[in-house]
Amino acid sequence: MSVTDALRRSAFDAETDEVWLVLLTIDHADLSAPIRVVNNEESITSNGVEYIAFPFDIRLPDSTQDSPPQAQITIDNVSLEITQALRTISSPADVHMQVIRASDPDTVELTFPDFKLRDASWNVL
Questions:
Q1: Which of 82, 103, 89, 104 is nearest to 37 (CA)?
Q2: What pLDDT is attached to residue 10?
Q3: N or C, which terminus of the chain has less Cβ within 10 Å?
Q4: pLDDT tier at 11, thresholds 50, 70, 90
Q5: Cα 48 from Cα 23, distance rounded (Å)
Q6: If residue 86 lies in a helix (H) or strand (E), which one and from where to where?
Q7: pTM for this structure?
Q8: Cα–chain-centroid distance for residue 96?
Q9: Between the CA atoms of 27, 28, 31 and 36, what dihedral angle is there, to the nearest 10 degrees?
Q10: How far is CA 50 from CA 16, 45, 63, 92, 120, in A?
Q11: Are 58 and 21 in contact (CB under 8 A)?
């Protein structure tokens, strides 16, 4: 995993004006198109790809030697689009996460590729 100097500086600064965003792509052969969302109040285009604004919380993967990296995503799906899409897939979906700065969305500061969505649950909220 490669971390850019901009991310490293911002992470260690006492204060920063940078807004860090996570781009999330969920893809599967059973989906008509990949789900692409950004944890932001407005949609954003990064490297020519549009990510739809969608509220979600994410715990980025850890790097422990005892187990494979795991991430946890909690999505507020008030429109039910993602829940309905996840119900249609028949096997684990591919998940790709990228961290960008809102001020420079075409520069990917950190990438977490090749994850599998192995467990999804939802409730009425």
A1: 82
A2: 66
A3: C
A4: low
A5: 13
A6: helix 81-88
A7: 0.76
A8: 7
A9: 0
A10: 26, 4, 29, 24, 24
A11: no
The pair of three-digit structure tokens given for residue 88, joined into one six-digit string: 């249609």
Phi-psi region of 58 (alpha: psi -120 to 50; beta: other; left: phi over 0): beta
Q: Tell me: the pLDDT tens digits for 75-112?
A: 765 566 776 777 777 788 888 889 999 999 999 988 88
Q: Which residue, 17, 6, 21, is CA-closest to 60?
A: 21
Give the Cα separation of 25 and 36 in Å (integer): 5
How far is it between the farthest Cα atoms of the chain?
46
pLDDT at residue 17, rounded to an integer: 79
Note the pLDDT of residue 1: 53
Digit-coded pLDDT (tens) for 20-41: 899 999 898 888 889 899 999 9
107: which 2 tokens?
A: 């520069």
Neighbours of 58 (CB within 10 A): 16
Is residue 36 within 8 Å of 23, Cβ to Cβ? yes
Gyration radius of the chain over CA positions = 15
